[in-house]
Amino acid sequence: MPRKGITVYLTRDLEVKIEKIARDQHRSESSVIAEAVRARYAGRDGDPLPPVSDQRQASRLDARLDKVIGEGLIVKEVLLLFIRVWLEHNPPIDEALEDSAAASAEARFERFLQMVANALRGGRSISGGSVPNGEDAASAGGDFGATAP
Fold first, then answer.
1. C-alpha span between 104 and 146 (Å, rounded)
2. Chain-centroid distance, C-alpha 38
3. How far apart are alpha carbons 86 and 80 in whole angstroms?
4. Which residues, including other chains, have CB under 8 Å from residue 146's CB and lie 6 or more apart?
5. Domain-embedded: residue 6
6. How far apart are CA 148 and CA 109, in angstroms?
7. Do 83 and 100 sit in the same domain of this protein?
8. What is the domain range of residue 84?
9. 107 domain residue, yes or no
10. Exposed, middle or buried by CB within 10 Å (0-12, 13-18, 19+), for 107?
11. How many domains does the chain contain in total?
């Protein structure tokens, strides 16, 4: 949006204050003065002006949301790549062991789901190094590293 330039003459102490505010907020001096004028005269003559800070905050929230979505997509891709590599590098199971391997996998998967549910319920992260063992493992559904017969 094109703006018309206005020259404003300020006292030296007021100029120093505006320079400090602009520097602290990483903004231009013009934007600080424009926001002050907007705040001073907003709502007069039935012309409510939207605060610039609300627009700026909405832009920041949009940027944060875009970042979170992007990070979620990266996590998804990493997980899918891990699964693909894992499937490519694991040898097939002998037919004689398929039934016991399927039962063991089912039991491990159920324990895994229980651990995830417990971690989410408690608001803590398993990735933070607090993998349950001993008595904690029993409450989470068993020893995660154990194999079923």
1. 10
2. 33
3. 10
4. none
5. no
6. 12
7. no
8. 51-90
9. yes
10. middle
11. 3
Angle subtended by helix axes 29-41 and 52-89, to nearest 10: 120
Quick one: pLDDT band at residue 43, thresholds 50, 70, 90? low
Residue that the structure tokens 């693909």 belong to: 84
Q: What is the pLDDT of residues 67-110, one digit of tens each?
A: 999 999 999 999 999 988 888 888 888 888 888 988 888 898 89
Structure tokens at 104: 């063991």
Q: Read out DSSP for 53-80?
A: HHHHHHHHHHHHHHHHHHHHHHHHHHHH
76: tokens are: 């998804």
> Looking at the structure, do residues 83 and 127 belong to the same domain, yes or no?
no
d(CA 37, CA 31): 10
pLDDT at res. 144: 41
Does 1 fall in a domain? no
Fill in the amino acid letter for 76: K
